[in-house]
Specification:
mainly alpha; transmembrane; transmembrane helix; 2 domains; membrane; 5 helices
Length: 120
């Protein structure tokens, strides 16, 4: 049914209103997608994949563990020398925390880490 036919039968206003409401709803949804958090500094929206494949899980674990080593090294240098047991505990906690955070959080973890550093 065309708009002209609908107007002849008295349904034109309802169809126009329905079309406008549909357009506005689509526009609002698009704005919510485009303007939602989180953003990178370039204004690009970060996409999150809810179910990573096994290879991506391994990459996340390894990269998180490497970050954990760097964090443990920074904490060791900042807070002074520890005994052997304290150093082992510090390194293991940092590695496990960062690796599991990267595995579970994915891009959200890295976004939060970069924001913590003030780089994003």
């Amino acid at each position: 049914m065309s708009l002209g036919t609908a107007e002849r039968f008295g349904h034109g206003a309802a169809i126009r209103r329905s079309a406008q409401e549909t357009f506005l709803c689509q526009h609002v949804k698009l704005r919510l997608v485009l303007h939602a958090e989180p953003y990178m500094s370039s204004g690009t929206r970060i996409q999150f994949d809810p179910k990573p494949d096994p290879l991506e899980q391994k990459v996340r674990l390894v990269c998180g563990a490497l970050l954990g080593v760097l964090v443990a090294g920074g904490m060791f240098l900042e807070f002074g020398p520890f005994d052997a047991a304290g150093t082992v505990v510090l390194v293991l906690v940092c590695i496990l925390g960062c690796a599991l955070g990267a595995l579970q959080g994915g891009d959200r973890f890295w976004t939060a880490f970069l924001r913590l550093l003030g780089k994003l």
